[in-house]
Amino acid sequence: MALTIPDVMLARLDPLANWVRANSLWPMPFATACCGIELMATGASKHDIARFGAEVMRFSPRQCDLMIVAGRVVMKMLPVLQRIWLQMPEPKWCISMGACASSGGVFDTYAVVQGVDRFIPVDMYVPGCPPRPEQLIQSIIDLQEKIRQTGTLQGTEFGKRTEHMGPMPIHLN
Amino acid sequence: MAFDSIVTTLKAKFADVTTSEFHDNRRLVVKPAQLFDVLKALRDEHDFHMLFELTAADYLKYPKATDRFGVVYGLLNIQTGERVFVKTFLNEPDLTIRSAFTLWKGADWLEREVYDMYGIVFEGHPDLRRILMPEAFTSYPLRKDYPLRGRGERHNFPVITRAES
Asked: B111: distance to nearest CA of chain A, Å?
């Protein structure tokens, strides 16, 4: 017997919005270095993030809701990263993929920012150099779980995060 | 050998050209004032038509150094595959040298990189500005007195919290 879908369904709005948003996270691939290759591999056919709702990787920030920072970010690129983040419409989340985006990785030099969470609000960190596609997929699953547990229809949970959660930039006196 | 004939010809024309050799690495050390003419002679008379390398070295912490900066030009003879390295030494405060842009167009970005990293100014260069570091950067990073982790320039940016973005 065929599955009968009722004509009218009742749901509460917040969980419904969370279910919709979690299962259709479209990534904005901010791939600067080697982690970008693993990001492409995750989007390819063997490990497929389209199974998890990331149907297209839009390269326009206006059309995305998940920014994946994959790769080391140098000081010349950081204003660009901040501009792309500000151009993304709400609701938006950020995954910092790999060691370099999370903490600077092996590149503790004058040009590489030691972790994008110093300047961008990050929701999920993926360790690895580079992380395997399965690790990135696990981070997307964890982000979906976070959205289901803490999301709201109006996006009020974002307005509550007023404090900077990452390491402080060094003060220059 | 061909290199020895090149050396004798150059020593006859220019004073103060010293040469050294190790395995197949042949170097000519010249004074900065003669550098452009030596490069031009190597290109026009001795067929070293390709400039494949233009870097600098900072000998500040080197134990037996006499000068601070060495600028190294690597030339290649395309027909025979021979390479020769031409080196000059510069000292502060006079870190200017004539640009090799009129001899080889490829020297354009190579000299911009040496300027960006060491602060050596190339006179006659059409567009001498930073190429790797941002324009507003004030130091020369590959000098030995510049720390590896920088002086805080890499973290001198505004912080964006989630509530305001």
From this structure: 20
Q: In Å, how far from its chain's centre is CA B150?
A: 23
Domain boundaries defined on chain A: 24-155
Q: Give me A52's structure tokens.
A: 């998890």
Contact B155 A76 (CB under 8 A): no
Right CATH for A24-155 from 3.10.580.10, 3.40.50.2300, 3.40.50.12280, 3.40.50.300? 3.40.50.12280
CA atoms within 13 A on the CB side of B52: 13
pLDDT tens over chain B, length 165 residues = 578 888 888 888 888 888 888 888 899 999 999 999 999 999 999 999 999 999 999 999 999 999 999 999 999 999 999 899 999 999 988 899 999 999 999 999 999 999 999 999 999 999 999 999 999 999 999 999 999 998 888 888 888 888 877
**Residue B136 near chain A (CB below 8 Å):** no
DSSP line for A104-130: -TT--SSSB-S-GGGTS--SEEE-SSS
- Tokens 């990452």 belong to A166
Is there a contact between A109 and B155 if contact means CB atoms under 8 Å apart?
A: no
Question: Which residues of B fall within a CB distance of 8 Å from A114?
Answer: 154-155
CB contact at 8 A, A129 and A99: yes
Cβ count near B144 (within 10 Å): 12
A162 lies within 8 A of chain B by CB:
yes
Rounded (10°) angle between helices A13-22 and A133-150:
170
A76, A114, A121 member nearest B161 (Cβ): A121
